[in-house]
């Protein structure tokens, strides 16, 4: 029996943040090849920060971030750009070039990085657009398509170079239920058909649990729970329950830490209102 394949992405004892503000502390995370791993948790908890670490838009303060067995902190400029070309990124709101057509948006990474002749780029663009159901919209401008369609165009652009790793930052945000279902189905189908690995940052419990193989909850600066969607649904962890059940109060408090109400609103004699 052959040993299991090494993970495509791994974080080992990673601490990171912005300036002196620490966002994640001593985080360990393993992303198996071919899987869909969902990062979930409270806003500002560090989920998107994990994506930035993987692409090395952000360097860890301590610990190591591995991509395909290589510590990305050790890569020089050219090797880092080469690693990034093996990754696809779907930004939260698509981030299409507004002055380029649907066709030219998808063709952009191929023209920049592939060196292929335009005739081959043409065929590849149509293939990618067909995969997301928008081959017929290739001549339209971003201003002429819906938000859900724009997200699908952005997905076609993200897979244009056949990445090994897809990073999704809130792919369901702002979508209607139909578009949300389409986006979820595409993520799962593309992961299977292309044999890639996907990391999905999302707040949408229902759609994410339908497509994820593994769910990681990030809060309070670290990984607080992880497992299959079924395990997370059955979890009795108070933070997981609050998130899954959409409870307004719990371990994540509704009120930001503040002084006592009476103290805050008290007007001291002679001080006047502030």
Please state the overall shape, judged from the principal axes of the Cα atoms: globular
How many helices does DSSP assign?
A: 10
Placed side by side, the strands forming the largest sheet appear as 6-7-8-3-9-10
- CA-based gyration radius: 21 Å
Poorly predicted spans: none
What are the secondary-structure elements, in order, as H or E? EEEHEEHEHHHEHEHEEHHH
Question: Using DSSP, what is the number of strands?
Answer: 10
Tell me the strand percentage band: 15-25%
Terminal-residue CA separation = 72 Å
Average pLDDT value?
A: 86
In this structure, how is the largest beta sheet organized? 6 strands, mixed
Helix content: 25-40%
Output the structural class.
alpha/beta
Features:
10 helices, 10 strands, 274 residues, single chain, 22% strand, alpha/beta, 4-stranded antiparallel β-sheet, globular
Task: Give a description of the structure.
The protein has ten helices and ten strands. The protein has 274 residues and is an alpha/beta fold. The strands form two sheets. Strands 6-7-8-3-9-10 form a six-stranded mixed β-sheet, sandwiched between helices. It has a four-stranded antiparallel β-sheet with strand order 2-1-4-5, with helices on one face. α6 links the parallel β7 (165-169) and β8 (197-201). It is globular.
């Amino acid at each position: 029996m052959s040993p299991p394949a090494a993970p495509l992405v791994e974080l080992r004892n990673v601490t990171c943040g912005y300036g002196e503000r620490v966002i994640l502390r001593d985080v360990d995370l393993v992303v198996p090849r071919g899987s869909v791993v969902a990062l979930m948790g409270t806003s500002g908890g560090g989920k998107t920060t994990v994506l930035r670490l993987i692409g090395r838009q952000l360097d860890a303060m301590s610990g190591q971030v591995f991509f395909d067995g290589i510590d990305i902190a050790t890569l020089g400029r050219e090797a880092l750009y080469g690693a990034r070309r093996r990754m696809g990124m779907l930004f939260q709101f698509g981030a299409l070039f507004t002055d380029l057509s649907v066709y030219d948006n998808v063709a952009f990474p191929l023209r920049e990085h592939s060196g292929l002749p335009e005739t081959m780029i043409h065929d590849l663009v149509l293939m990618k657009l067909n995969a997301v159901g928008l081959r017929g919209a290739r001549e339209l401008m971003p201003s002429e398509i819906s938000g859900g369609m724009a997200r699908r165009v952005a997905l076609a652009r993200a897979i244009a170079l056949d990445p090994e790793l897809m990073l999704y930052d809130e792919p369901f945000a702002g979508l209607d239920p139909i578009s949300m279902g389409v986006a979820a189905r595409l993520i799962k189908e593309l992961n299977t058909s292309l044999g890639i690995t996907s990391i999905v940052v999302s707040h949408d419990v229902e759609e994410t649990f339908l497509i994820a193989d593994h769910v990681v909850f990030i809060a309070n600066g670290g990984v607080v729970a992880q497992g299959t969607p079924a395990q997370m649904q059955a979890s009795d962890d108070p933070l997981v329950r609050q998130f899954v059940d959409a409870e307004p109060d719990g371990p994540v408090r509704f009120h930001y830490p503040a002084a006592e109400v009476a103290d805050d609103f008290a007007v001291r004699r002679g001080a006047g209102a502030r």
